[in-house]
Q: What sequence folds into this?
């Protein structure tokens, strides 16, 4: 935290660099932010005279202001609890096939009806949410870690190595990702691990580009040059100056990556590559629901559709909130 | 300009070479090898050996790569053992339809997203901007096939005006064009949020630039400032964006073709993945990637044409 507080001693002169007449900095695009959700009246920035605590509170205030992001966070936590803790409370049999109960419309016994295998739809949503959220988190985490390492090495070392590393990224970015994932999945047998691996293989590329760009521009900044001229070693420069400055952007990127991974997982499931049954995912449920559209079994289509849209929206809104936070910090430096 | 183009073309060739290496490595990392995939698990060891020898699979890998590459350059993409046809002729059959799908939908997307993004940027943080942004975000949050299914439910089931499959497309001359409407609309709705969001923030960034203030200061009317200066400057970065998002557009086409049974390269690819027809899979990946690389090269040429600065600055 304290390392992130001091972004290399950059001049704090840019404090007032706001758009005239705007409560928020202009560069921020917050899609979906409704007017009125951005209260102009900021909370008082805390009474403490000590600067770090005050700053911390002010930052907390920024988050608090962004109620939309908080609502998004609540949705993410809610859906995670629903998927992972839900089955402990709402017990249903999600492994047995019972054709006597197949395709029942919503009723008191099954609030969202049953699946073609006769399983309770709410229970299906819980099980499906597990693999969906696992894939989302895991891909965001792995892709960010790998992409960050790749991009940092390319940007910091530079030269011929940079050229080689980035051409590989270019090449892999040029392959449409769904084609690549389908190809990988037809070589390997799909399961949760393979899907995470395949989606990670296509997700780390943009992080690598982003981090490389950031590192390249930071490398030439005065505070890095100053630090080096004092005799700082590479490790010190990387840990103390580069990492804290890159981290904010990377965290925002990772959040959006999670949303993309969840969407990509749904698409991949639609193409028939998913976790082996009886495990399922929201994408699988949605695909099943699509097959049932012509039968009119709406309860098999709309709940997973709503779940996917909700989680993607929530993750995005949180990402935008984080983006605002990072932008403001960058503005101060 | 020539130097810039030459540099970009060279880069594109390097990218394609790396892609070919990736594809080659994947081809040779098949469990049990390519021949096993072709002959099945019950084939005798002798049959496997024979086929490996005739296919040249016993040679050292780098040499195999060079031979394969030489064949590629000559247009020989291998032979589909499932469809019993050369991959190249399959691609020649299916690719034009996909290009039509992707091309037309991208044209529509740009034609709508650019004015919309401009409007949003100009009316930043007003109610209409927020409403448009919110609807774009919701479009973005929907998986492509969900958009397509909603289209089918509304326009093929509830009000049956459009066909829900495009199977018939391309089977003969003078085919019904209505089969194209839903696939194109699905791709359009799936991609529009990328461009409009980008255009919006490009316009906002440009509106803060000094040249805009100057343009106003010397007495230009708002319409002229917007259409003549801001549009042109924002457009040039959106053109680059177009090149960068082409892979996503093709990924979307894969989904749309599978959903609507549209007989394009995506459906070919998907069917090949079901039958594990590896030569087709790899041929499609190569050709689609080549299309993407060519497309982004074209976008960069357009960028250079729109923005003279690019031609002179070394990257």
A:
């Amino acid at each position: 935290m304290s390392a992130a507080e001091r972004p290399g001693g950059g001049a704090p002169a840019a404090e007032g660099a706001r758009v005239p007449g705007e409560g928020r900095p202009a560069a921020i695009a917050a899609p979906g932010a409704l007017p009125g959700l951005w209260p102009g009246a900021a909370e008082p920035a805390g009474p403490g005279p000590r600067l770090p605590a005050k700053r911390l509170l002010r930052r907390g205030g920024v988050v608090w202001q962004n109620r939309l992001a908080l609502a998004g966070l609540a949705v993410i936590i809610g859906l995670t609890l629903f998927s992972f803790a839900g089955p402990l409370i709402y017990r249903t049999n999600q492994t047995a096939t019972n054709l006597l109960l197949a395709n029942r419309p919503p009723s008191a016994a099954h609030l969202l009806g049953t699946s073609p295998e006769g399983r309770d739809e709410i229970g299906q949503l819980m099980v499906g949410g597990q693999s969906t959220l696992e894939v989302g988190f895991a891909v965001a985490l792995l892709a960010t870690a790998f992409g960050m390492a790749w991009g940092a090495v390319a940007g910091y070392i530079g030269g011929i190595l940079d050229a080689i590393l980035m051409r590989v990224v270019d090449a892999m970015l040029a392959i449409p990702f769904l084609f690549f994932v389908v190809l990988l999945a037809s070589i390997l047998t799909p399961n949760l691990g393979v899907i995470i691996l395949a989606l990670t293989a296509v997700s780390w590329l943009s992080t690598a580009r982003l981090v490389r760009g950031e590192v390249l521009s930071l490398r030439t900044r005065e505070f890095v040059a100053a630090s080096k001229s004092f005799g700082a070693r590479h490790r010190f420069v990387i840990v103390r100056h580069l990492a804290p400055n890159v981290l904010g952007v990377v965290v925002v990127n990772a959040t959006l990556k999670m949303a993309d991974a969840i969407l990509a997982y749904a698409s991949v499931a639609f193409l028939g590559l998913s976790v082996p049954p009886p495990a399922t995912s929201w994408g699988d449920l949605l695909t099943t629901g699509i097959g049932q559209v012509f039968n009119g079994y709406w309860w098999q289509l709309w709940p997973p559709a709503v779940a996917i849209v909700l989680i993607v929206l929530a993750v995005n809104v949180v990402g935008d909130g984080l983006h605002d936070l990072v932008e403001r910090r960058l503005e101060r430096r | 300009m020539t130097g810039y183009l030459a540099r970009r073309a060279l880069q594109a060739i390097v990218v394609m070479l790396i892609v070919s290496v990736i594809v080659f490595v994947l081809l040779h990392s098949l469990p049990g090898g390519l021949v096993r995939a072709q002959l099945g698990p019950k084939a005798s060891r002798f049959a496997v050996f024979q086929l490996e020898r005739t296919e040249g699979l016993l040679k050292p890998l780098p040499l195999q790569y060079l031979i394969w590459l030489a064949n590629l350059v000559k247009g020989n993409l291998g032979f589909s053992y499932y469809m019993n046809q050369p991959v190249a002729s399959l691609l020649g059959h299916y690719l034009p339809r996909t290009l039509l799908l992707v091309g037309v939908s991208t044209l529509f997307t740009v034609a709508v997203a650019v004015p919309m993004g401009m409007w949003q940027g100009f009316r930043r943080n007003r109610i209409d901007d927020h409403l448009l942004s919110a609807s774009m975000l919701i479009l973005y949050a929907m998986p492509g096939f969900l958009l397509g299914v909603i289209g089918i439910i509304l326009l093929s089931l509830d009000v049956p005006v459009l066909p829900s499959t495009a199977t018939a497309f391309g089977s003969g001359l003078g085919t019904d064009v209505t089969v194209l409407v839903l696939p194109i609309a699905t791709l359009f709705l799936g991609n529009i949020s990328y461009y409009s969001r980008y255009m919006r923030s490009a316009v906002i960034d440009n509106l803060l630039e000094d040249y805009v203030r100057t343009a106003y200061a010397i007495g230009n009317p708002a319409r002229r400032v917007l259409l003549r200066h801001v549009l042109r400057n924002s457009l040039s970065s959106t053109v680059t964006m177009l090149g960068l998002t082409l892979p996503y557009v093709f990924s979307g086409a894969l989904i749309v073709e599978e959903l609507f049974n549209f007989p394009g390269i995506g459906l070919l690819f998907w069917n090949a993945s079901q039958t594990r027809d590896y030569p087709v899979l790899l041929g499609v990946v190569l050709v689609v990637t080549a299309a993407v690389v060519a497309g982004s090269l074209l976008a960069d040429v357009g960028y250079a044409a729109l923005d003279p600065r690019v031609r002179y600055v070394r990257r």
